[in-house]
């Protein structure tokens, strides 16, 4: 059994306030694709995890992978002993602002909910998701979502038009708490969005009126992010370039698939990049 764990991309991210416990209250539009990890399951009496793929190495020293945490949380909720050998194919750079670990945890919840024959509704998976990380709930559905609160409020996103994304990471990991600490400025009001966008151009027009409040702080920590943004913005057909989440991955928005693919090929080899359409989760 295989479950896809698509990358999360924050098309904008406004920090609208702060809770007494220090967590930031956000307004964000999260979409998915065009790159993904994979979680696979093979029968075994005990729970185990194998790591594969181009970014597996960065996780080898990790005592408690989010995949195992998700499996144990689900088993505990169901009152059963966790079993099976999980394999994580790590295609997404680690600590890169596209929710790789969160997507893996969410994919594990979906996969084991099926494999263990639990049949839990999505609402229960969402409850199990939040303690695993602020981005895990949005990754459970992996569909365009307006995120609120600290990640636990799942609002309706505008109808997203066909569009293509380029993702680029300078291969420099960036820890989320450091980026929140480096954030400058006050708070930004919630964004005003339409119910739907006619096309990618229209979507980019609206998004240009929004921002990623973590971008300038992240650039102070990793100046190469500014180079990535300029390189993306300079590509023919690029409608906008911005950092996703807490970085360092940046995205470019394109109307035409060929333009997004050509842009990926134009990126320096030392960087990680991927291009393709927005991911559409099965209904
Ligand atoms: C920046 C986003 O990626 C936007 O989608 C998420 O809000 C972060 O999601 P995440 O990586 O799953 O974050 P977590 O692992 O839950 O939190 C890591 C750390 O980031 C900070 N954090 C996270 C989320 C949030 N709304 N406010 C915060 O201040 C906290 O210091 C927290 O200890
Ligand atoms: N399966 C996993 N994949 C990636 N990181 C994991 C995983 N399990 C545990 N981690 C830990 O979680 C940390 C954050 O990784 P992740 O790739 O999810 O960050 P991110 O892309 O910045 O996420 P976000 O966009 O949600 O802030 C890693 O540095 C690593 O220590």
UniProtKB/TrEMBL annotation:
It comes from the Bacteria. ATP binds at residues 93-103. InterPro entries: GHMP_kinase_C_dom, GHMP_kinase_C_sf, GHMP_kinase_N_dom, IspE, Ribosomal_Su5_D2-typ_SF, Ribsml_uS5_D2-typ_fold_subgr. Residues 65-140 form the GHMP kinase N-terminal domain. Residues 210-270 form the GHMP kinase C-terminal domain. Pfam families: GHMP_kinases_C (PF08544), GHMP_kinases_N (PF00288). The active site is at 8, 135. It catalyses: 4-CDP-2-C-methyl-D-erythritol + ATP = 4-CDP-2-C-methyl-D-erythritol 2-phosphate + ADP + H(+). Pathway: Isoprenoid biosynthesis; isopentenyl diphosphate biosynthesis via DXP pathway; isopentenyl diphosphate from 1-deoxy-D-xylulose 5-phosphate: step 3/6. Belongs to the GHMP kinase family. IspE subfamily. NCBIfam families: ispE, PRK14608.1. This is 4-diphosphocytidyl-2-C-methyl-D-erythritol kinase.
């Amino acid at each position: 059994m295989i479950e896809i764990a698509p990358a999360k991309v924050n098309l904008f991210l406004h920090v609208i306030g702060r809770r007494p416990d220090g967590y930031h209250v956000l307004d964000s539009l999260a979409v998915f694709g065009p790159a993904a990890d994979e979680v696979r399951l093979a029968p075994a009496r005990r729970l185990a995890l194998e790591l594969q793929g181009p970014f597996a190495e960065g996780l080898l020293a990790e005592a408690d992978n989010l995949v195992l945490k998700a499996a144990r949380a689900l088993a505990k909720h169901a009152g059963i002993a966790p079993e099976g050998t999980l394999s994580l194919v790590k295609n997404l750079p680690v600590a890169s602002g596209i929710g790789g670990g969160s997507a893996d945890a969410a994919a594990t919840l979906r996969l084991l909910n099926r494999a263990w024959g639990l049949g839990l509704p999505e609402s229960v998976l969402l409850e199990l998701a939040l303690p695993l990380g602020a981005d895990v709930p949005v990754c459970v559905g992996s569909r365009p979502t307006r995120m609120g609160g600290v990640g636990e409020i799942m609002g309706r996103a505008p109808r997203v038009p066909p569009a293509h994304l380029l993702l680029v990471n300078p291969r420099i990991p960036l820890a989320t708490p450091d980026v929140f600490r480096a954030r400058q400025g006050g708070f930004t009001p919630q964004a005003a969005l339409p119910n739907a966008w006619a096309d990618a151009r229209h979507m980019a027009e609206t998004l240009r009126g929004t921002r990623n409040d973590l971008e300038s702080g992240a650039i102070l920590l990793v100046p190469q992010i500014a180079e990535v943004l300029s390189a993306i913005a300079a590509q023919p057909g690029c409608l906008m370039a911005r950092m996703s989440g807490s970085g360092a991955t940046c995205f470019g928005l394109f109307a035409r698939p060929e333009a997004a693919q050509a842009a990926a090929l134009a990126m320096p080899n030392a960087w990680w990049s991927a291009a393709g359409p927005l991911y559409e989760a099965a209904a």
